[in-house]
Every structure is written in C-alpha cells, then in structure tokens.
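Q: What residues go here?
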C-alpha cells in the first residue's frame, strides 16, 4: 500500500508534465506522425482574423460581425494566406478586458507559432480598448516578426515607422477614453432615470416599458405543446391540437400568488408551474420551462412590479433592505400587479431572509468532496438540450447527504421527464470504475512521450543547455525576490495587503521550482511512474480519498452523462489531453449518443 500511495503522489505531480508533453506532441507529430510535419507547417502561412461585437442586443447587431468579416476577407483576398477565424460576438464582450473573450484568448495562444504570418482585425478598438494592452500586443508582435493589419477602409497603419507607432498609441488612448466616457454617460443616464422613477436594465419578467418608460404588463405569451415543448406565438394561432396558451404576465402573477398564499418554496412552485405548462421567457425572448431561479427572480422584483425603484439589484437585496417595509407605499398608477399581493410577497420574503441569513445557516463544517462534482449531467436534460439546441437546458447532478447517505441529486426546480431524482454515490462511481478499467494509454503515444521525456528538461524545447544549472539559477532568483519583498515591507515601501499578496505569489513560484524535475532521468522516471498508474486507473481510484478522486475525475473527464432511471453512464467526454493519450475500447465507447461537445 505504501508503494501505491507513493505512485499516486508521483502521478499527481506529473499531471502538468504529461499535459505539456502531449501539447508538444500534438503540435509536432499528431498531424503527420513525423518530423516532416514541422517543415510542412513552416511553409504554411496563416492569418489570425479577429472579430468582436461589444454587446448583442437585437438581431440587427449581427450586421457588425458580417461587415468586419467582409472587410477582412476583402483585404486578404489575394494574399495567399490561410484564414483562421477567432470571434467574440455573443453576449457582452467588452474590449476593456479579456476575461469574457475566449476567442481572443485562443488567438493569443497562437501568436508565437511559426506558421502565423499576421494578425488582422477590422480596427484597433476590436482588439483592445486599453492603451497598455495595445502596447503589449505590438511589442509581442514585433518580437516575433509578425504583422498587425487593420481591415476597415482608411484604418491602415504602418507599424514599421515611429510615426505609425505613435498614431497607434494615440488611437488606443482615444479608444480607452471612449470606454470611460460611455461609462460616465450610462451612469448619469441611470441616475436620471431613477430620479424620475423609471427602472433601468432589462424589464422584469412579464413586463415591458410603455409610454414614459414605465412598466406595463405584456400581452405576449407562448404555447405549451403536447410533447412538453414551448412555441412563441399569439393566443389566436394554435400551432397544434391540444396546445395550451399562457401569457408571460399571467405566469408572473401566478408565481407571486403561490408565494404569497402558500408555504411552497422556489423549487416546489417551479415544479407546479412546469406540470401546468406555464412558460418563462429568457433574455433572448425564447420560451422555456420555469426553474427555481426564475421564481426567485420574479419574487425579488416585487418593488418594480409595484412602481418603485429598489435600492439594489434584485439579486443583491437582503433583510436590511426590507426592514422598513411597513412604511413602503406603492405607486398605484404604475403598479402592474395588485399592491396587496405585492405587500404579502414582500412580508414573506422578509421573514424568510431574516430566518435564512443567520450567520450559521447553510454552513457545512465537514464538507464532503463529491468526486464527480461539476462534471456529472442528467441524461434526460442532455437529450432535451440537444434537441432544442439550448445548452441552458443541461442540468448538473449535485451532491447531497440524505440521512447520512451520500447521493447525486438532480437540479432542483427542473422537471425533465425522468422518474428518479437522485442516486447513491457508490452506484454512479461503481459504473465509472468499470469505465476507468477500460481506459488504457495508447501504445504509439506512450513511445513518443518516453522519447520526448528523455530529450526535455524543465520545459525547455529541445535546447542543449545545462538544465540543472538553469534550475539552480531560477531558485536563487526566486529567493532573492522573496528577500527583496521583505526589505520593501520593512522600509515601508509596500502596504501590508500588497506585501501579503506578493509574498504568497512568490512563495508559490519558489515551491513550484523546488518540485520541478530538472534532469532527463528524473523526468523519465516520473513519467514512467505516471504511465504505470494510468494503466491501472481503477486501482488508483480505489486507493484514493474522495478529494483525490475528484481531482482524478476532473483531470480525465470534461463531462459524464448519467441516466438516473437506468442507473448507467450513457455518454462522456474526455479532456483534450486524455483524448490524445488514452484509448477508448469500442465496447464502452458511448460518446456518439450524447456528446456534450456539440454545444
């Protein structure tokens, strides 16, 4: 057992090593399996094309991405380059940061590749609206001998001259000022609207803004079809025999009434509305079943339904905001629902918030690490999401402790047609154990990995250098940085908060360097240990703690689809590195049925 535990920790240290090795192999040998692929890729010239739309409000906004693509294609029509497209056009994709721009982050990972010739966008603001980010990008592009092109007419700039660089920095400053100015104007507009008693943002469910900007009850609704799906449409145009029509405003009124007159919670109200065929309208104006979160949203908007303006956003309101409820006076002329009903809703919400916002409520002292947390999905919901092409209909199975029995439970407030709502953890994990026993490393990839491990040290790409000496120098640099940080704190240069944050980061870097393998022999030894354990994943699972099982499952699988009624795994998706490294036997290959990667 001691040897197994030792091998397990060796495997844990080697996850990053295997991923990096596989990444290099995928670039060098996956496409052709030979060194010739490297020369072929060097001859291939690629243009990285980027398209961004700041915010999608209506269907007319799609014109902007189409115009950007057309300008880029026109400019590169006779260039002979291969166009690779990266886009951020759905939802809110601000150019002020990169956090919500997966397309741009994917493009950045390609910037240093040898086959990339240039980066092109419609104009500079599509790339970034921060001057310092533009400066970093230009430095990186010039360091790698790449080019940056702007496709919009009249926007072409020559970055090889000092004048061109100065113009780019000036444009970047103007773009950044535009963001700040737009923010100030939006804040001023919101303040003015609140002074006039007009809500801001998306109108609450079941309402729209009428004359003067005040809320009115909407007459729109949706049909509930016999197959349990929803179709938008007017009440006089029945799409199928047996269909039932409900308006969105009546659905909101039904939610408020059930909450005020019964003791039902959010999830049970949602269950009842789903059984009766009541529709909810999402932010894209598409009807769908009501969920527990939808019920919470409607209830929290009781001030807006009564013609008032809340002090905070609905989701941020707490018991303190409801303390002076007895003195609240609704505006009858602007109220969209009966004020007596709204007051009853507010009183019950205040009572519940006082009860559930106690310091000890919801605190779990001994939390259990459910091994399949965040990767286990309901098969019935997955099928409905695939048929409707709506990823939002997918439901994760969360962990719960029912009378001391650990179970995976279906998401609350959602009815998907399945009978079972939960399953014992050991039942799911026993099925997963059968799957793990069938996953074996690919022989051809294993040979390439072992050869590559002998040639690498400390992540250096095939350079003949003294890795041990470089590793020692890196350790000394990390130590000097920590000591310098201590001196700056003693001299009063750093505040305590900055000192604590920077010290944690530098100590983490030092610890990673200490644990980093530096010799080819050590790399090969650790990789061999790792391969031994990957060949016996079921053994590794059995000897692990729940927390280690969770780490193992999330490293191997992006998602696992489980049928609660049949109590079996019906589909799964391996992570990128596992797909490259592990072979899936045909007798357990169920990925074709419900592959969540289709979303």
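A:
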């Amino acid at each position: 057992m001691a040897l197994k535990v030792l091998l397990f920790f060796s495997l844990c240290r080697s996850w990053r090593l295997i991923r990096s090795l596989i990444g290099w192999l995928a670039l060098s040998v996956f496409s052709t399996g030979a060194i010739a692929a490297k020369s072929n890729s060097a001859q291939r010239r690629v243009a990285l094309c980027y398209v961004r739309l700041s915010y999608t409000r209506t269907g007319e906004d799609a014109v902007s991405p189409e115009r950007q693509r057309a300008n880029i294609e026109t400019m590169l029509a006779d260039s002979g380059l291969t166009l690779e497209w990266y886009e951020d056009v759905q939802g809110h994709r601000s150019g002020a940061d990169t956090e919500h721009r997966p397309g741009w982050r994917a493009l950045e990972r390609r910037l240093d590749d040898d086959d990339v010739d240039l980066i092109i966008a419609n104009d500079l603001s599509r790339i970034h609206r921060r001057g310092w980010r533009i400066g970093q990008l230009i430095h990186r592009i010039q360091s790698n001998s790449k080019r940056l092109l702007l496709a919009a007419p009249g926007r072409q700039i020559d970055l090889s001259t000092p004048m061109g660089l100065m113009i780019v920095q000036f444009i970047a400053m103007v773009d950044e000022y535009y963001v700040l100015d737009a923010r100030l104007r939006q804040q001023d507009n919101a303040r003015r609207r609140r002074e006039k008693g007009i809500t801001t943002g998306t109108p609450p469910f079941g309402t729209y803004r009428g004359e003067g900007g005040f809320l009115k009850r909407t007459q729109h609704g949706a049909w509930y079809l016999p197959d349990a799906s929803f179709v938008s449409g007017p009440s006089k145009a029945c799409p199928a025999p047996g269909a039932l029509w409900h308006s969105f405003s009546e659905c909101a009124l039904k939610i408020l009434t059930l909450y005020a007159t019964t003791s039902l919670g959010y999830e049970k109200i949602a269950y009842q509305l789903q059984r009766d065929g009541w529709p909810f309208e999402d932010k894209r104006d598409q009807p769908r079943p009501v969920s527990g979160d939808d019920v919470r949203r409607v209830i929290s908007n009781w001030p807006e339904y009564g013609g008032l303006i809340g002090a905070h956003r609905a989701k941020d309101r707490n018991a303190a905001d409801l303390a002076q409820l007895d003195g609240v006076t609704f505006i009858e002329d602007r109220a969209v629902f009966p004020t007596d009903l709204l007051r009853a809703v507010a009183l019950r919400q205040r009572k519940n918030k006082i009860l559930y916002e106690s310091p000890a409520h919801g605190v779990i002292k001994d939390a259990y690490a459910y091994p399949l947390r965040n990767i286990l999905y309901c098969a019935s919901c997955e099928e409905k999401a695939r048929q409707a092409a709506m990823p939002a209909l997918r439901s994760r199975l969360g962990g719960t402790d029912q009378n001391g029995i650990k179970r995976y439970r279906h998401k609350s407030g959602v009815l998907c047609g399945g009978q079972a709502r939960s399953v014992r953890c050991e039942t799911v994990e026993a099925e997963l154990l059968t799957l793990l026993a069938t996953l074996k490393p690919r022989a051809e990839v294993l040979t390439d990995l072992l050869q590559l491990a002998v040639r690498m040290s400390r992540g250096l790409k095939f350079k003949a250098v003294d890795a041990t000496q470089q590793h020692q120098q890196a350790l000394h640099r990390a130590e000097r940085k920590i000591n310098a940080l201590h001196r700056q704190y003693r001299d009063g240069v750093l505040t305590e908060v900055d000192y604590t944050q920077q010290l944690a980061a530098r100590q983490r870097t030092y610890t990673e360097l200490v644990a980093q393998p530096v010799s080819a022999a050590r790399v090969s030894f650790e990789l061999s240990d790792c391969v031994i354990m990957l060949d016996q994943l079921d053994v590794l699972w059995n000897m692990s703690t729940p927390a280690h099982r969770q780490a193992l499952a999330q490293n191997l699988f992006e998602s696992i689809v489980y049928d609660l009624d049949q109590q079996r795994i019906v589909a799964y998706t391996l992570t990128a590195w596992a797909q490259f490294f592990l072979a899936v036997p045909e007798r357990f290959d169920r990925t074709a049925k419900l592959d969540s990667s289709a979303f």
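A: Context that may help when evaluating the design: The mean pLDDT is 79. Residues 459-516 form one domain.
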